[in-house]
Amino acid sequence: MSTDLDRYAFLPGAPAFYPTIVASEGCHLITSDGRRILDGAGGAIVGNIGWGRTEVAEAAAAAMSIGYVVPLWPTPSRLALVDELVEHWLPDGFHHVFFTSGGSESTDSAIRLARAYQVAQGRPDRWKVIGRHPSYHGMTLGTIAAASHLGRQKGYEPLLLPFPKVPWDDAEQVAKVFEQEDPATIAGFIAEPITGAAGACLTADDEYWQTVNDLCKEHDIVLIADEVMTGYGRTGLKFGHQHFPMEPDVIVGGKGLGGGYVPLGAVAATDRIAEALRDSGFMYFTFTGNDGACAAGAKVLEILRREHLVERVATEGPHLEARLRAALGDHPAVTDIRGRGFFYGLELNVSRDAVVAAALERNLWVYPAGSGPVADAVMVAPPFTITADEMDTLVATLRDAIDAAPFM
Ligand SMILES: Cc1ncc(COP(=O)(O)O)c(C=O)c1O
């Protein structure tokens, strides 16, 4: 194994800051020098079932020997994953799933789907997809434009399309923007039900979601729930939007769907949306429905069900929240704690990079977050299998790390 860590960095001069990981187990990542790092964020909030699950790797290996099959053709692993999703995960009325290799491809495809739906309905003037500020939907040029993560947009201006934005929390403003933009030009509305790393678990109220939902239904605007972070149990329900009065037409998943073991994303559409595209088609990516990824995804979802892990998030989530509040609720460097399930954001008035680095020095990984109005934050989003002792360690170590971060 090369010890020249600079070699791995894409950009010359990038700091060789992170340890080399050679193994993993449960909620821990194991470094080449034998440290055990408690993974308080499931990697990039992907590791829902925890690490070291050899049965996922075995399922993927068995399916991969098929090699490559053009995405339009069914295979056993593709069929099995669609069955799993339709029968056990997706809300009623969702019988159509388009697979991708991750979150960005999925949200980008959902934007394309909204446009394709409107064109198929004979409404070619509808091209805008409204996003929220702040938000993050990925790093394709389309998703950068639809989202509002100032840090991730920086340097790519002018953006591909001047997609309109609404505030994350203000129902009245949403109604105003719809009117100003003219609903006859709007194809879709894309939203994270609970904001991910752009806002560290900002959560709008029911009135907000009711307004968004009603406006979309009234004008036949495709409502896209970006469940890349919040999907597949992270918040204690199968999907994050199920906490709110929100009935999406399209549900986008990535991250936890493959559990972090494989690059896998999925765009699920209602029968109504899919039916409208019957004659126009919807072009796939070369690796849509990769067999190893589908088999691994189906195994991840089976494990979640077999071990009742979504239910566990619902019952244990409040205990994690209580620990965070008890240890950090009054901390002078923590200005807010929010979220639900195993999905929490801690807004800070110290540097998030300092906190993340101090945590890592203490063998804890938490996820850096924040953009626009949320300057500095970290996220706590452990695997659904985290034990009570591990939660104690996580919270105590995070407190030490925040104590160590200098005020700005
Ligand atoms: C809500 C949301 N959507 C989309 C994406 C993009 O996913 P990916 O990084 O897998 O392309 C992310 C990634 O963090 C995300 O959190």
Describe the structure.
This protein has 408 residues and is of the alpha/beta class. The chain folds into two domains: 5-52 and 314-404, Aspartate Aminotransferase, domain 1; 54-306, Aspartate Aminotransferase, domain 2, CATH 3.40.640. Helices cover 37% and strands 19% of the residues. It has helices at residues 42-45, 54-64, 76-89, 103-120, 141-146, 150-153, 171-181, 206-219, 271-276, 291-306, 309-328, 352-361, 388-404, and strands at residues 21-25, 28-31, 36-39, 94-100, 128-133, 165-167, 186-191, 222-226, 250-253, 265-270, 334-340, 343-348, 364-365, 367-371, 374-380. It has a seven-stranded mixed beta sheet with strand order 4-10-9-8-7-5-6, with helices on both faces. A four-stranded mixed beta sheet has the order 1-2-3-13. Helix 2 runs antiparallel to helix 10, helix 7 (171-181) packs parallel to helix 8 and helix 11 (309-328) runs parallel beside helix 13. The longest helix has 20 residues, at 309-328. The model has no long low-confidence stretch (mean pLDDT 95). The structure holds pyridoxal-5'-phosphate (PLP).
